[in-house]
């Protein structure tokens, strides 16, 4: 399975996402624990918020007509009481309930209190400085739609509307299967390598809103790889790491091919070319390359969007920063190139490394500049967008 | 304490951050649980990575001199064995250990295997397709510096270098004290409001890397507010919500003034003007306004940078997206204005609301467009930067 031809990134991603069915299982979560979860049902307000007329300013609640003609030079004198009626005003502060008969608030700055009476030095109109019942939310109003990921302010809003529980989609369950005979979980002898691609993906997947099963290392044996894949077909997504290259170690895509279907093997991204995408018993599988940086790039390129699709997150935004390139960046011809860069004092500095195995370059980098297939590169001084690492 | 004068945002933030001392306490965390934590010590590689010479390609390990003159038309025939010496080659795959006497790898595509011999159809030079010991990381190399927040790839790298534990700064401990006599924790009667500002801040603070103590609601009584502040002076940061407005409910800044020092009260941001910043027994305090949106804006403006400073996170980037304004946005003259916007099909749509209490506008918004003090606003069709909500 030598991939002389490489599928363009867009084609590969599109094909893969089309094969992924968003999770339909739902569960109920207490609102206070629902941060980051994705709503499965719309939320309709069951009551008005606020549930009363409130003062929008600190001052005195009044019957607006009583202030007719009041000004700095000719104040109106009114009595101060606990309740409001014609001729009587009452102290209120921002957010507090308006007395029933009051229909406006005179700001504190415009009132001079003199014992049990007060001079009103400004005229107010009915409803001035008064927030109406239901001003923020009206009963029956659509508040949030399915597919919305709950943020702290949403949880605040829903709590204020007395929504105690929300129905959310189950989180995607991602199986992570590291493969490779040189890998060890503990202390490596000479010729051995500590398993880190699986670990890195476990942490990323969690950050992207999914749960994970971090499986033991599987040796480069066809039967073991097949068994490992079959064991996790109840997951929503399977990630393998390693064994995607040409030659004898092309075992993982071959196992996917035997058990299911390889959609793409060999993608025009750099690094990350040996990535394969497929299905085993309808469970989507991303075969990630073994070189750590290629693995990371492929995770950003395919695993993150796959998780978002499983989770019903259709409206997501790539968060990025822009800066000026400190030196020329060249893409790999014909490939979508992910160049590692650091941002120093607003300048975007390419990290000069060769090879896709150089994980230490990741520690120095703040993110990627993505150079599309049809772009040769970017010149020193050009403004570029940096996709920051999660 | 009527704040006719409002401190410019930059001045207020600078004054506040200068009063905050980053946390010096450290603790040791297992590397696998250290995502998001901030390094307190530099990390120096204790060994080479990889710890062996490795094949950089799938193919056959050879003594390079044996391939002299080999080509498609005049292949060189060599013996296949388990180890490599002059005249004998051995199968290797990407990442595997190079046999001791081998100094190059011929790519699999350039080898035709014939039983126990192989035709080599390309010449390789010494070191071709071989990764050197320490190629990724050299023993003694500085890997990461203090103040670095650990991301999944960093944890992968450190694990590969057999770093099992890391020394990190203690997470900031933030006390959150909601104040207001209209607030209730449970079901609100008419005239009552569910406490949500404290809850929202608890979730935000956690997202920004801190721990929190979410305190009970404190009534608008001077002594109770003072007692609540004093109880939490062992925290790294105190947030209060509500009670920052003019008039009788100006209680919280007054309590800060009595017990410590108010640095700023009244800031030229909109919404969020009534925010106060101060110190009680050297513990920084942010008095957040009670109106939910003003409260949220003030959290982004002051609480997030305060937490980052406490946590030693000096190198942070504002993640944003840019888009085209769907309609005119006008700032409040003289104030740094935080306009809520939604992003639909790459267009930035202002959320039309009035008042800073309209929490429902937050649910509809994806983020803020920040209009600086000296800018009147932005026109329809202009490119603007949207700071997305966390």
Break the fold down into its secondary structure elements and pairings.
2 copies of one chain form a homodimer.
Chain A: H1 9-18, E1 26-30, E2 43-44, E3 54-55, E4 59-62, E5 76-80, E6 88-92, E7 104-107, E8 111-114, E9 117-120, E10 130-131, E11 142-144, H2 152-160, E12 165-169, E13 173-178, E14 183-184, E15 193-194, H3 197-207, E16 211-214, H4 222-231, E17 237-241, H5 251-259, E18 261-265, E19 269-270, E20 276-280, E21 283-288, H6 292-310, E22 320-325, E23 329-330, E24 336-344, E25 347-350, H7 360-364, E26 367-371, E27 377-378, E28 383-388
Parallel strand pairs in A: 5-6, 13-16, 13-17, 14-15, 17-21, 19-24, 22-25
Antiparallel strand pairs in A: 1-12, 2-11, 3-10, 4-6, 4-7, 5-9, 8-9, 18-20, 20-21, 22-28, 23-27, 24-25, 24-26, 26-28
Q: Roughly what percent helix of chain A?
A: 10-25%
Q: From the alpha carbons, calculate the radius of gyration of chain A and give it in angstroms.
A: 31 Å
**CATH C-level of the largest domain in chain A:** Alpha Beta
Task: Characterize the overall form of chain A.
Answer: elongated
Mean pLDDT of chain A: 92
The major pleated sheet of chain A works out as: 6 strands, mixed
- Portion of residues in beta strands of chain A equals 25-35%
Instruction: Enumerate the spans of chain A where pLDDT stays under 50 for 5 or more consecutive residues.
Output: none
Oligomer: homodimer
| CATH fold annotation of the largest domain in chain A | Molybdenum Cofactor Biosythetic Enzyme, Chain A
Give the CA-CA distance, first to last residue of chain A: 33 Å
What structural class is derived from the secondary structure elements of chain A? Answer: alpha/beta
